[in-house]
Amino acid sequence: xxxxxxxxxxxxxxxxxxxxxxxxxxxxxxxxxxESGHDVTVVxxxxxxxxxxxxxxxxxxxxxxxxxxWTDVHRVPHVRIGQEADLVVVAPATxxxxxxxxxxxxxxxxTNTLLTARCPVVMAPAMHTEMWENAATRANVATLRSRGxxxxxxxxxxxTGADTGKGRLPEPAEIVAAxxxxxxxxxxxxxxxxxxLAGRHVVVSAGGTREYxxxxxxxxxxxxxxxxxALARTAAARGARVTLVAANVELADPxxxxxxxVETTAELREAVLAASADADAVVMAAAPADFRPASTSATKIxxxxxxxxAEVHLVQNPDILAELAAERPHPGLVVVGFAAETGDERGSVxxxxxxxxxxxxxxxxxxxxxxxxxxxxxEDNEAVVLDRDGGSATVPLGSKSALAxxxxxxxxxxxAASSSTNQTP
Length: 425
Ligand code: CTP
Hints:
The protein is of the alpha/beta class. The chain is built from 14 helices and 19 strands. The chain is globular, with a radius of gyration of 24 Å.
């Protein structure tokens, strides 16, 4: 961790801030970048400085801050800042800055920087719903995306006043995660893949289900939902329409993803089956409870005064993955499961995993070796992705986003294989 003000040696990030009320949230974006060792130069617009002043940006970044091209002219900041950047993030990006960037206008330091940057650029829009839906903004966003600039989908929710709708700045944690994903892949969203999942609908389940004993007690598990959220975020960044069915996930919603919140395995099953009716892929990254109490008490269970114990009778939950794979709402659906395995005297991790892939009938199985308590709740993951035709891809220890990209690569190659099989010669 780097203290604010101390020189950072990590990747050079330019944080562009344009003039919207959400400019204050960019302070948190800045903090997250500096605390993870990035060297951040903040370039606000003049309008942004009316919302949050230069001293705040200077103090948090440890660098001088300016918005015009007339200061320090001998150091040619209007060209140098963009040229030297490894990543440019604009948060919030107003309708005005999107329009200027789409048309190559350069009337201040930020728009000059956008014209000179050769590195990946991520823009996190924030504006009122009407502005986001305006035909001019739609066209500008399409132009920017066609040039490889990553324009995140705004979130839905409370806007500046009492109004709500689409146009809210995605959560700072999500902006930074999406930006680091782009930086890590050295290019536009999904790197070489660009928006290769565009036109596809994918469903991802995440988190751990809760099975209630009574109104206040449940049986649950430790799944954080991080891997599922990374899958949802990366699919959205690669252009897919994404439904995330989130079971008790306490992480920020990924930008541009439609989130369905559930608690129990029965609710998870219902939401996944409903969303998969028109889906091209379903990835079951959630940890649904295998068992639930045979009955749930409508009132809080009381203990007896005699100090006696209590018995819980459990019944098995339906296996959603196996059901999807067996019933296939439509033939083109790619079904992906996850398996946490340990080797034992009956077989290795991969032998158990191959047997599970066959038993569940899914197309791909992402296998985590959990010997010694690895993986749970961690930021990183390593895995092997097995496919039903005998192939496999090994993913070395790395971020959950890196594993997510490999999963989408494998899903996309199954789509490509099935469309070439279906083509008439
Ligand atoms: N799964 C599911 N419905 C359940 C339980 C699990 O869809 N009721 C899915 C999970 O989302 C995951 C995969 O099945 O994709 C995990 O399989 P599971 O049989 O639960 O694996 P383990 O818990 O490792 O099972 P086992 O102890 O049987 O090896």
